[in-house]
Amino acid sequence: MVWLKLDLQYFAADEKTEKATPKKRQDTRKKGQVPKSQDVNTGFLLLLVFGALFILGPYMEGTLTGMYKVAFNEYIHRELTEEQTHSMFVEMTMEISKIMAPIMGVAIVAGIASNLLQVGIMFTGEPLKLDLKKLDPIKGAKRIFSARALVELMKSLLKISLVGVITFSIIWINKDQMMMMSQKSVEGALAFFGTITILMGVDSALALLLLSVLDYTYQKYDHEKNIRMSKKDIKDEHKNIEGDPQIKAKIKEKQRQMSASRMMSEVPEADVVITNPTHYAIAIKYEETKSDAPFVVAMGVDFLALKIKEVAQSHHVTIVENRSLARALYQHSEVDQPIDEQFYKAVAEVLAYVYQLEKKI
Mean pLDDT for the chain? Predict the structure, then answer.
């Protein structure tokens, strides 16, 4: 039963039930793994492009009409030579570029804006790195027949059906007018079909944007699910960030030992050691060239205090018992730092006593 309980605890610790930590989110973002819906890109692209077509329609019509006029009024009378053909090709390419450049510019802006809206500014080369695991046929088959692939299939069918219904409905509503276009002028027919095309495009784009909200919600949910962490993962991450507690404890212990060793080497140079007498020991030194006030060269409690007193006795450093002063100095002083101003008078009296005792004055 004990082993069974331990196994259950182990599996529970490995179960990914916890939300991702900020560090895990940052790491996945660096790898290019962010919630993102391609439908947002498609919807924005279609909406802005068809909006640009609606606004730039007259300009495009004028440019195309001018191309036709030049072609049938000028180019048709030119001699068919290499130079003339090259000249006509360059001129036509420039005119077509004038038409296509604004549309391409709008498409680029739409692509950048839709990505910034979803993931913000992000630069990473991780998705471009060669990963042989992606060529694994077994994993590839699992992806094809996974729940995610089924969701993508259903989503694609829904988009195709929705766009098909929208375009068919618009055509069906305007079918009578379409039948009468043979009685209209060429310009009138082009204007009508252009309007119908833009209407179908804008309506389809709005429908895709509506679907993209649902798709982005699903993508975000799926992303959060994929980056979930187990309690063990969180603990390991904390260890990596903060360091293993056992190692940190050993380092601190080593630092304490080094600090204690250094302090012990300074005790023989002290002028006096003020004690509690058993729990506290503070070694004080006064040196005019180093500090205007007496400073602490070593201090400690319990075992360390005992060691300080032993070193002081072995080097004939005077030990003075002052319970309240020793405790106060320990609480308000730092090693290698001058004592606080509030202790000047009390320490001066102790030093004066020591100097008299040692006949230094």
Answer: 79
